[in-house]
Records
---
Amino acid sequence: MIPKKSKEDNVAKRIELNVDGKAHSIDADPDMPLLYALRDDLGLKNPKFGCGLAQCGACTVLVDGQPVRSCVTPVDSLGAGKITTMGGLVKDGQPHKVLAAFIEEQVPQCGYCMNGWVMTTVSLLETTPKPTDAQIEEALTGLKCRCATHVSIMRAVKRAAMA
Amino acid sequence: MNTHPNRRHFLGGAGALTVSVLMPGHVAQAATNGLEKRPPLDPRKLASYVSIQADGSAVAYFGKMDMGQGTDVGVAQMVAEELDLPAERVLVLAGDSGTSLNQGGASGSTGVSHGGATLRNAAAEARFVMLEMASKQLGVPVEDLTTANGVISSKSTPAKKVSYGELIGGRWFDTEVEWNGQIGNNLSMKTRAKLKDPKDYKVYGTSAPRRDVAYKLMGTGDFVTDIKVPGMLHARMIMPPVAGSVPTAVDEASIKDIPGAKVVWEKAFLGVVAPKEWDAIKAMRQLQVTWSEVKPPFPEQKDIYDHIRNAKVVKSGGEGKMLKEPEKVEEAFKQAARIIEATYEWPFQTHASMGPACAVVDYQPNGTTTLWTGSQKPHFAGDGVATILGIKPESVHAIWVAGPGSYGRNDAGDAAAYAAIFSKATGKPVRYQGMRNEGTGWGPKAPASVHKVRAGLDKDNNIIAWHFHSKSFDRLNVSSNESKPEDLLGGQMLGATPKPGNVYGTPAESYVFPVKQQTWETIAPLLDAVSPLRSSHLRDPLGPEIHFANESFIDEVAFATGKDPVEMRLALVGDPRDRDLIKAAADKAGWQRRTEARKQRNGDLAIGQGIAYSQRNGTRVAVIAEVEVDMKTGKVRGKKFTVSHDCGVVINPRLLTQGIEGNVCQALSRATHEEVKFSKENVTSVDWETYPILDFTERPVEVDVVLINRQNLPPTGAGEGSMRPVAAAIANAIYDATGVRMRQAPFTPDRLKAGMA
């Protein structure tokens, strides 16, 4: 349960964000999770509200290359951090190799969880280009896929690692 | 068999990816290019089912939708087959009450078997009509005409030809069809054409690619959560801390510091709205509410199965020749030399879709009200919004947009009703999305159940009498059809009284016993209205639990009589297709004959293999599970699943295979993890910590699928059949590994350890 707030907490503050290579400036409650800045203020569609509790990964973005759960990250805590959303993995209409692998493997059913799997895989392959199965499991454990496409996800991660 | 993706429209030159990123709105726009204004939807008009665009491609108007298994692609292939078009030249527009008839929405795995079959008939009729048109235009008898790739040509003079686009592209068919008078799943129309001979199939059996994958990954299309309407407010519900309590006082001043936040309160309906989403969430958390004191409505969780056993029976039913003469069944048991019986228990389970449901409603009292919904039944959800708002159903335009997961009657319909109530109360378009606790805790539940199975054996161990009996809550406290206020939480909060369906179900298999009885009893809900434990349909409703019991018990009888589980099933099934199916799974998995638990060990790991099989509306699936049980921790890992699958003709082997993989993994999750927890006051499974599901590290290493293609038989649906036998196969594998018989799900480490103690 979130503690009750006092009135002064609802005062908006000017906050600068660097998202998918673009600078943005918004007025927001500094405690507001980044997710709402991305979705509500910037109108970006990829990060999803899944749980608001950092338990599922549907809201995952990269901040300076690291996967972050935007649903619990205060919007004022990012400083000059470079934020990348799943949509930011598309350059000139061409998807990043991880997105391409997930598309080729036709991974998503409902597709609502994909930010967690894709963004975490992008981060994994940056540091570990040829991961073992155990390294893939270590990176992806805890993420949720309710349609249970886990077998397809593993195929896609391996495909991306070979690309 | 082609199990590789169709890459023709995927991989461009030099390895560059060129993918279709059309979003649904663009698809809709593309579909009306070159077409005059659409005539009113009427099931007696061919134009309501199919049209030809100016470029000669076809559009099928599908009154069901795909929830991510590729149903729309299968339907496109069925339509393409009858029109002699490649699959990619058929666009399927789904789930919009403005473009498609109400074919019942996603329902009971009927997307292909019913919805697709109707559109296939329409496609055949369209081809029939175009052949007649071409005959006149070319001066060639119909018998001399042939179709290929959207072109009609003369067999004797191939130079005489005309394309579909030239014949009717951009215009609507003006053809009356014979409609069967039904709306929903059974909506059907007859065609004058002879359907294509299965030996001539070109599009069936190919793996056309999914159409929604790229936009879902690249963010180029909308989910329902992405819909924004000018002037829209965000809404959140305030749910009661104790189920059954209602707000008695609301301190609106407690949220007055939040910009634009307002309370919407009528009877038991209480929520907040604000222009910014985060502000709506803050208001939800900050609002001070006084709730009525009520008696806690639920039993202790540990007592739930005793509650079911002891509860008064509301309704009973079943299958069997002696349903009205149960005493004759008992006489047969009296003849038995030996009776074996066992009881199995299955918990409440919940949809817990990936995101809580969302809907947007723009209420226009004097015009068209628009609903954007992720519901599996948008036409019906639109009707529900109309009744909630007190307006005519035809004044609601329901638009399906991909939602955050759907496996049946989840929280999506409730979201639509909430958004409607908020929109009417505020006079603004309103977007409602639930919080996690609403998606997991307040969504409809698959009901908990108790199943008792008895077999009477003669002195030679032949089964002479068989009785399967279930006792449970009604499978439909709220209907899966979302058109009535009493079936929607918002409607119940405003006073609508639920009318339980009082129905249940029986096992589906072809076992032949001299006396075979399958019965059920339903009991009253624990709380009549606004209950977080109200029951409704979750993927393969009742299938996992009923067949967990039935198929576990077959194994119990096999081992009690010194028989091998596969041989016993082969001897008992009465349908040759089921025999082929079971053999196919056993052969592929390398089934090892056994007449008792083998208890194989690899260090601390006990290793076992188990089989189960079941039918579902003509589809049949056999599963052989291979599990590891950690004897120290009691943890079960489903390592490998071999699935033989017969759903008639196979339309798209790759998508079918992937759908089966998903079902197996979701079924593994339900069998090993999922149990809705509750206190006497409320459901306490409210997030992923309190309602754990399968983790990536627990996924099967392999799902090996054997598709049995019955080219000459109609497709009977594949959305859910492979969910059904998995839990039983796992339970039977656990027994083979450990000698412990699981009779209560889920198969958690605690239950395993209790069994091994």
---
Amino acid sequence: MAKIVSLAEAVGDNVRDGDTVAMEGFTHLIPYAAGHEVIRQGRKDLFLVRMTPDILYDQLIGVGAARGMKFSWGGNPGVGSLHRFRDAVENQWPQPLEIEEHSHAAMANAYEAGAANLPFATLRGYIGADLPKVNPNIKSVTCPFTGEVLAAVPAIRPDVTIIHAQRADRKGNVLIEGIVGVQKEAVLAARRSIVTVEEIVDELNPPSPNSLVLPSWAITAVAHVPGGAFPSYAHGYYPRSNAFYIGWDEIARDRDSFTAWIKENVLNAKPEDFAKHAGNKPAKAA
Amino acid sequence: MSDFTPTEMMTIAAARALSNDDVCFVGIGAPSAACNVARLTHAPDITLIYESGTVGTKPDVLPLSIGDGELCDTALFTVSVPEMFRYWLQGGRITTGFLGGAQIDKFANLNTTVVGPYDHPKVRLPGGGGAPEIASNCGRIFITMALSKRGFVEKLPFITSMGHGEGGNHRERLGMKTKGPTRVITDLCILEPDPETKELTVVSVHPGVTREQIVDNCGWAIKFAEQVIETPAPTELELATLRDINARTKKAHQGDKEAA
């Protein structure tokens, strides 16, 4: 059963130096508050996994929390480069970053294989592409029935997966709505998991029998962090701050302005500071 | 006819490539603008799909990211990312993929990964995202990007997604049954692969553009088809639609000033 705890306790209990950590959320529901807590607690040597490392992983890389990263698209969506990621890869600042690069299809399949307790995923992928030449973890497998040669990648099995969701009930059952990305697969593939939520309610009341619910017994810890996905968004709660994503380009371009931003907005901040972004609770989420 | 910019001509020419029956996997940026102009003009029933899992989406403003809430709010339905890539893309349900890129070569292979050596890149670009499998699994591919010597290069430092590979029947030799890139729409002209060699060849020149401009802005010795037509200028409706959605988009993206 999930323990409902503070964010500091959830991260303190479940994220360890050297861990393989997946923080997922495909543009939507990115667990920013939890990522900031990982930075505040000074975690080191993390191997970060995420399909679309955007600003959150730029921050973790820039503070030197990561030894490596597995990913499929590392940019600031619609804006441009992740400058801290680029500085790490191009100039090894603040430390070298080992990268394992895949395509979206391969990453999605690899999470699914992890959730399904399989050792690898197979897909009709990477045909004619150069990534298999530079990533030894992209191999091939021959179909035993048709002889077709398919791409194979290892399953993703994080030590801990961290996601953000709309709400949980008091037992720790979690409801996710909107663009659901790979969050379900990432949680089920991991040994431990942390879910931050916009609100904790008496009754979960899933809107449909087919709603995406993660049961309490499949989650390690749940923490109540309203606004915890800002500047990404929580469908039904608050919109994506595209202005923040645009503004990040200038903050992250320069090492000093980045470091000053982290000090003011992460190191000297608290999870409760995210609440101001939470907006008004929609009527349906009562 | 009112004045229009080369970028407006590019987006509108790209929009015209799409039809009402297309099921289109939409890349972010220029492809997204083109696909939505098509939907708002001649192709109202086109199915637009973004890799975040939104199917049949009808955004009122263009998304900044492939997962903006606008896409989910206006979609017929939204699926998980594994389902998107496995069932819908790999399953062969998508007629058309619309991609952009940082660099392209004469066989319409694309690079969005690195400039310089992979292990010690001069410029680390974002990477492939969905492109490697979009390029192989969609029925056909359209590409839109501005013509420039930096972008249209003789040899790519890295092939992120395969177009026609080394040309000729390279796709078939690798077992692919899809057509690959069938049209590249730039701000100066439209290119299509030669039926035999698969080398990108100019088939249509935008109004007011000279052949010299095209030659001067391409990094390889670009060829012209035997019959080259002039791209019809944007209509009033096309231009008004594009400018309206761009204006709505700008307002929406800069509207949330609570940031940072």
